[in-house]
């Protein structure tokens, strides 16, 4: 049991450290802009969404390119902050 708790704590620490290294601009450019630059709602349109709306769009995003699968909540928040930038 103690080992399981330690592994959960270790995962939480490494997960949060990994999120700090997350480069939302790079992810958007390499994974999202292919569609969201021309075909789908672009960065400016996404910037109009508040965080809750943005999270809902991510949660219901069609699983076409695999770009949004596996994003953590901090990473989704970072993506939202990125699209809010002018």
Give a short summary of the structure.
Helix 2 (24-36) packs across helix 5 (73-84).
Describe this structure in words.
By secondary structure, the chain is an all-alpha fold. It has five helices and no strands. The protein starts with a helix and ends with a helix.
Helix content: 55-70%
Distance between the termini: 48 Å
Report the β-strand fraction as a percent range: under 5%
The biggest beta sheet reads: none
Give the helix tally. 5
Overall 3D geometry? Answer: globular
Structural class designation: mainly alpha
pLDDT < 50 runs, ≥5 residues: 1-18
Alpha carbon gyration radius: 15 Å
Strand segment tally: 0
The H-and-E topology, N to C, reads as HHHHH
Mean pLDDT: 75
Keywords:
single chain, mainly alpha, 86 residues, disordered N terminus
Show the helix and strand layout.
Layout: H1 2-20, H2 24-36, H3 43-47, H4 51-59, H5 73-84
